[in-house]
Design a protein that fits this description.
heterodimer; A: mainly beta; four-stranded antiparallel β-sheet; B: mainly beta; seven-stranded mixed β-sheet
Chain lengths: ~110, ~110
């Protein structure tokens, strides 16, 4: 079945460092891909998404490109801030037909130190 | 900004007891979901609900689970006879007028079964 694999955490970075969180997926069709973020004490919030190959999703300085050839959707940010400390979840949703339940990775905890 | 709310934030129960987790989705949304995350594991889809009936459910969602929209605002998840392995964070989500739209998540209910 469909699945998402993302890098294990926790990831600890200094402020202004470059961030990459790897995410790869397995899907039978052509899924939409998502990054959700969970700040402490809050729910999952959509960070960005891409619905087809070569699309780039971006938001709040974060970017991820849908790479069909490598089945990847890696999250990047050029300069992280302390306020980016959170848990990041990669997810996919199969397109076409169904109500579209999300399939998540395990989540990667990011801590950014001043 | 409208948001999904969940109550309670934490619940402790004895094995074999019934629990009801409550969610108030965003008011004009039509699709509702429950997910759960066992500590250290992936966020897993449980069930989706549309037009007053279940539209999809996972293998996890067995006869011990049920969902209901008892009125125009609440969406509940009932576990009839809790097991130790039901201990998890339970997330409610809703999406708008199409199953393909972004899902908005609540902050979760942490359930501990003793």
């Amino acid at each position: 079945g469909d699945s998402v694999t993302q890098m294990e955490g926790p990831v600890t970075l200094s402020e202004e460092a470059f961030l990459t969180i790897n995410c790869t997926y397995t899907a039978t069709g052509y899924p939409s891909l998502f990054w959700y973020v969970q700040y402490p004490g809050e729910g999952l919030q959509l960070l960005l998404k891409a619905t087809k190959a070569d699309d780039k999703g971006s938001n709040k300085g974060f970017e991820a490109t849908y790479r069909k050839e490598t089945t990847s959707f890696h999250l990047e940010k050029g300069s992280v801030q302390v306020s980016d400390s959170a848990v990041y979840f990669c997810a996919l949703r199969e397109n076409g037909g169904s109500q579209g339940n999300l399939i998540f990775g395990k989540g990667t905890k990011l801590s950014v130190k001043p | 900004e409208p948001e999904v709310t969940q109550t309670p934030s934490h619940q402790v129960t004895q094995m074999g007891q019934e629990v009801i987790l409550r969610c108030v989705p965003i008011s004009n949304h039509l699709y509702f979901y429950w997910y759960r995350q066992i500590l250290g594991q992936k966020v897993e889809f449980l069930v989706s609900f549309y037009n007053n009936e279940i539209s999809e459910k996972s293998e996890i969602f067995d006869d011990q689970f049920s969902v209901e929209r008892p009125d125009g605002s609440n969406f509940t998840l009932k576990i009839r006879s809790t097991k130790l392995e039901d201990s998890a964070m339970y997330f409610c989500a809703s999406s708008g007028t199409s199953g393909g739209e972004t899902q908005y998540f609540g902050p979760g209910t942490r359930l501990l079964v003793l």
